[in-house]
Every structure is written in C-alpha cells, then in structure tokens.
Amino acid sequence: MSAELFSLFYQFADVFAFLILSAAGLAIVFGMMGVINMAHGEFIMCGAYVTVGLVNLGVPLVIAQILAALTAGLIGVAVEFLIVRRFYKRPLDSLLATWGLSLIVTQSMLLIVGSAVRGIGTPEGSFAIGGYTFSSYRLVLFGCAVAVLAGLYIVFMKTRFGVIARATMQNAAMAKALGARTGRIYAISFGIGTGLAGLCGALYAPTMTLIPTMGATFVVESFVTVVIGGANVLLGTAPAAVFLAVIRMTLNASYGQIIGQIGMLFAVILIIRVLPEGLSSVLVRRGR
Amino acid sequence: MFKLLDGPQTLGRGKIFWSCFFVVLVCALIYPLFADSYDVGNFSYFLIWIFMALGLCLMWGYGGMLSFGQTFFFGVAGYSYGVLAINMGGGTATIAALVLSVVVAMIAAGILGYFMIWGGISGIFFGIVTLSATLVLAFFLGQTAGPEWHIGTARLNGFNGMKGMDPLAVRDFYIEGSALYYVMIALIVVVYIALRMLVNSGIGNVIVATRENPQRAEMLGYDVRKYQLLTFVIGSGLAGLSGALYTSWGQFITPSSIGLPAAAMPIVWVAFSGRSDLTATLVGSFLLLFGFQTITVYSQQTALVLMGALLLATVMLAPQGFVLGIGKLVVDRWPGRRPRDAGPALADAVRLQSDET
After folding, report:
1. Contact B271/A96, CB-based, under 8 Å?
2. Is B116 on the interface with A (CB under 8 A)?
3. Which of A162, A170, B190, B240 is 20 to 30 Å from B72 at the Cα level?
4. How distant is the Cα of B157 from the closest Cα of chain A, in angstroms?
C-alpha cells in the first residue's frame, strides 16, 4: 500500500517539479515587469547547452549546472539592457520583441550547432520501494523545485532587495520617488528570471535530447502555470503548479503524456472563464 | 455601399487609389498569360497566406486582440479539409469539404473565444493562451503516427503529415495551375472588399471603439464581448480558409505548419506591414512572403532568422509597421501635393504598384 502511495507522490513530484522549474523564471519576470518573455524557452535551451558543453569538457555536473544558470542570468541582464528595457510601457510590443529574439536564437542555433548534440545521460542511481523502482534524479529535481520556491520566498520576503522589489512591483513611480533605483531592480529581476530558466534547462539537460527547439517543450507548461497563477506571482505560482500537477498526473497515469497535456490545457481554459485573474486573486481576497 | 468602401477606418480612397487598385487587379489577371506555370503556382502559394494575414489584421489592428493562434485554426481547417476530402471522395465534394472545414475552424474559434472573451482575458494573456492551444495541437498531431490514429479512412500520420486528399475540383476538372490562381485572386478581392466594408460599417466602428476603450464602448450600451467574439471568429475563420486552401494546394499538411516557428509568421507579416490598415497588410504580407520564399530556397533557417530580426526591428524602430510608415512618409514628402488630403490614396497607390514589380 505505502509503495502505491509513494508511487503516486513520485508521479506528482515529477510533474510539479517540471511545472515549477519551467515557470518560475517566466513568473518572476511577469510579476515584476508585466512582461511575458517569449524567449523564455531559449534561455532554458541556453542553460541546457552550457551544461552539456561544460560536462563534455570534464566539469562536474553540479558545477556545470550552476555555471549554466549564471550564464543564462548574465545574458538575461544584457538582453534587458539592450531590448526589454524600452518596452516596459508597451507590454504587447515586449512580447513581439522577445518573440523575434526567440526566432533569431533558435534558428541561428540550428544553423551553427546543427540539429542534435551528444547528450550526457541521466545520472545513475535508483531505489526500490515495494515492487517499484524509482530514479533518484527525479527526486533531486523535486528537491530543486522546492528549493527554488523557498529561495524566491526568502529573496523577495526577507531581504532588503525583496522589499524594494515588491515596492517596485506595487507602484514603480512611488518606489522611484522614494529613491529605489527601479531600472536596476528591473534588470536584476530579469536576470533572476532568465537565470531560473537557465537552471531549468541545466537540470533537465541530462534527461532529454538536446535540440535547438527544445525550449518549445517547456513553454506551454510555463505559460499555463503563469496564466492560472495570476498577477501576484509570489502567491499564485505554487498553488497553480499543485493544481495543474494533480490534473496532469491523473491524466498521465491513465491516458499518457499527450492527453495529460491536452487535459491540462482544457482545465486552464475552463479556469480562466471562472477566474480570469488566476488563483492568486482568490488567495488575495481570502487574505483580507 | 460605396460609402462603406471609402470609410474612415481604411486608408486609401478617392479616384487615384481605386484606379490604381484596378490597374493592379488587371495586371494580376493577365499575369498568367505571360508567366510560366511554375511561377503562377508559386504566386498562388503566396496568395494562400494572405487570408490569414488579413484575419489577424482585423483582430489585432482593428479589434485590439493579439491572437497567436492563427496557425491553430489554419491547422484545424487544413486537417479538416484533408479528413473530409478523403472520406467524401473527390470531385465536387471537395468544394463542400472546403466550406465545411472553414466552418469547423470558425466553430473552434467560437468555443475558444467564448471562454477567453467571457472570462475577460485580454492583452498579453490572450496571446499566450492562444499560443498554448496552438502548440498543444501541434504536439498532439505530431504523435499521431500510429495506424490507430485515423478519422474514417484518413490517417493522421504524425510528423509526416496527412496526405492523399484530392485538390479542389468541380466534377472531373481539378482546380489547379492558373485556374487555382484565378480562384485565389477572386477570393482575395472578395475578402478584401468585404473586410473593408465590415470595418467601415456600424459593426466595424464598435469593434474599433472596443479596441480604443472597452469600458467606454460598454458604457455606450454595446455588449463588447459579442463584437469581440465576432471579430475573433471572422479573423480565425480566415486563417481556416488559408489552411484549407493550403492542404488543397499541396495535397498534404503537417504539424509543422501549426507549431513554432510557423505560428510566428502571421505576426511578423502583419506587424511589419502595419496592423492598423487592411491595404498595408495585404501589400506588406505579399512582399514578405515573396522575399521569404526567395531566401527559403537557399536556407530556411536564414530566412527565419531574418523574419525574427524583422519583427525585432519593427517593434524597436517602427511599432506601427514599416509599410504603413513608408507609405505615410512618401505622402508627406510628395512634391506639389497638399499633405494628408489626397495623401493616403497616393501612398497606397505607390504601395500597390510595388506589388507587381
């Protein structure tokens, strides 16, 4: 019995980790600046490629993953400075600009790197409970997702940067008048967002085939999590991921991955009819 | 009737514009007499996509709804045409398949649109929800390779795509080559004129008013949701028309015409051309398709990189669109003319002439 329960938890943890890791970066950027970064998938791809490249050079996996996340974060700061910065007043145009960037990056990668590079294989290690065998790496991913949530909570709720960032999120003009350097806050937040995207790619790099278009496999999950989460991303993202993971897990188990994804999409479309502002709006109302 | 054609929501009016319009039309009509059949087939191929661009122009430029789902409805109608044409047999039934597949796309748009518009989704979220639906459809169709995935006798065939449907035909006469070209020209003229009349009519004014300020339009007594849904259904239906014509033209359709990067193409055409005007979209999309096809022959990736760069350049340098911007610039600099008055007509004249060169 406990083996079945654990198996259920394992499946939930797997989907939950995928949703949180792929959505966290997008959610931070959206929550802070109201910008949806359409090149999110490309930052994930960047993280994955840097990880694999470094591992093939002989760097240990964990260090390669950290370096990959940092690389994606730094590139993100540069992109914010060069492109995204101009569009904070025109959120729809920021969508188009980052989509243009995404096209350029994906297709250039196809031209330069070609369609596939040698992968590195999932780290070995498994354990058995009852009659079932589980991969340890999947649990590591779940642990990372929880750590990302905890890290974001600490950074945004317990640090000085977090206070200023939340003030900027609430009222940028007022925060600026009180002396917050909002431009820098935005750049750092964008960097954190893309760094998290890079981390996602780095963590999933050992588990999947590396192709320049791999970002597309993450974007649907990250989009729907952010849509369901709603405007207050610090509050909404985790419950949204739990909700979607339960639906996804149930459908995956009975009908397979693709029906799971379709079912998740249908659930999202139904939810936005009832709760157009997402789960966080309900939570905010309850909190008052 | 004529008032609707030359209304306030569209650029290009007066004798000069319409005489240019007819000159271009006549050139387009006699074109197959001078060109070889390969070029005529290529031209038909460019024209297929124009409907999708015009539909997006209506939704985005006039209705303020940025849909990233044009290829979703393109795919729904394209696959529907395939399924219907295969199951109903060839001949005149293909015409019914064409009409029905567009209807299927419009029903799909009605359902998706209902949930989004009545839910109050707008702006950025409208874009990413439609894009999510598009990508999920592409993933779904990509994994239907097995023989268990079939509708009637039509196999979906996964990434390799569906094939083996008949092209449009009337009895034994296949509509292809220059016949198809003339059908396309006729459809484009009809759609273009009809959209012009729509946006200049009372309904069109409400659509534009909703774009400008939904609350205000609602306070004036209009149920803006109905107008938005109508816009979404028409715009998506036009994408469906493109999809059905595409399947008929090449007798195949694959999931790659739905997913990324295909989903970005209509956005690039319309953004580059100038979303706020139908004529600009018509001309700009045609030019881009022509250029894209020319480069794709050498390297598809390079062509797509250029399209991405074009999108980025458009939003950074000319957010209203290049074709529209250049048109206005030409008018303002036109020697010996009062600016603005005869202006837009001339701008369009210049743009329409460049269409044929």
Report:
1. yes
2. yes
3. B190
4. 16
Which residues, at least 6 apart from B33, have a Cβ–Cβ distance to it below 8 Å? none
Distance separating alpha carbons of residues A118 and A114, to the nearest angstrom:
11
Question: Which residues pair with residue B169 across a beta bridge?
Answer: B174
**What values do phi and psi take at B276, rounded to 5?**
-85, 5
Residue B77 φ/ψ region, left for φ over 0, alpha for ψ in the -120 to 50 degree band, beta for the rest: alpha
Torsional class of A36: left (φ above 0), alpha (ψ -120 to 50), beta (otherwise): beta
Kindly identify which residue of chain A lies nearest to residue B119, measuring between CA atoms.
A273
Closest by alpha carbon to B306, among B296, B315, B297? B296
Q: How far apart are CA B85 and CA B101, in angstroms?
A: 10
**Alpha carbon distance A127, B299 (integer Å):** 48
Could you tell me if A150 lies within 8 Å of chain B, comparing CB atoms? Answer: no
Distances (CA, A) of A59 to A117, A203, A275: 17, 15, 47
**Residues whose CB is less than 8 angstroms from the CB of residue A45 and which lie 6 or more positions away in sequence, other chains included:** A105, A106, A109, A201, A212, A213, A214, A215
Band the pLDDT of B91: cuts 50, 70, 90: confident
Q: Closest by alpha carbon to B318, among B257, B352, B272, B254?
A: B272
Tens of pLDDT, residues A203-256: 999 988 888 888 888 999 999 999 998 878 888 899 999 999 999 989 988 888
If you measure CA to CA, which chain B residue comes closest to A106? Answer: B305
Among the listed residues B169, B165, B147, B172, the one whose alpha carbon sits nearest the alpha carbon of residue B87: B165
What average pLDDT does chain A have? 89
What is the average pLDDT value for chain B, to the nearest integer?
A: 87
Terminal Cα-to-Cα distance of chain A (whole angstroms) = 41
Per-residue pLDDT band at B353 (split at 50, 70, 90): very low
Q: Does A111 touch chain B (CB under 8 A)?
A: yes
Q: Of the candidates B279, B295, B277, which has an alpha carbon nearest to the alpha carbon of residue B354? A: B279
Tokens representing A55?
A: 């591992």
pLDDT, residue B164, reads: 85
Q: How far is A36 from chain B, CA to nearest CA, in Å?
A: 7
Q: What does the pLDDT look like over B210-227, one tens digit per residue?
A: 999 999 999 999 999 999
> Does residue B297 sit at the A interface (CB-CB below 8 Å)?
no
Distance (Å, rounded) from C-alpha B143 to C-alpha B137? 10
- Indicate the SS3 state at residue A77: helix
Among A153, A156, A129, A124, residue whose Cα is nearest residue A140: A124
Per-residue pLDDT reduced to its tens digit, A62-90:
999 999 999 999 999 999 999 999 888 88
Cite the DSSP H helix spans in chain B.
Answer: 2-5, 14-34, 37-56, 70-88, 93-119, 124-142, 178-200, 202-212, 214-219, 224-250, 265-273, 278-296, 300-317, 322-333, 343-356
Interface of B with A in 269-288 (CB under 8 A): 271
- This complex has an ipTM of 0.92
B120 touches chain A (CB under 8 A): yes
- Joined tokens for residue A69: 């996340």
pTM of the model: 0.91
Report the pLDDT value the prediction gives residue A288, as an integer from 0 to 100.
Answer: 58
d(CA A151, CA A265): 29
Residue A34 and residue A168 in contact, taking contact as beta carbons nearer than 8 Å = no
Terminal alpha carbon distance of chain B: 32
- Is B317 near chain A, with CB under 8 Å? no
DSSP string, B208-231: HHHHH-HHHHHHTT--HHHHHHHH
B357 has pLDDT over 70: no
Nearest to A29 by CA among A260, A259, A197: A197
Are A268 and B132 in contact (CB < 8 Å)? yes
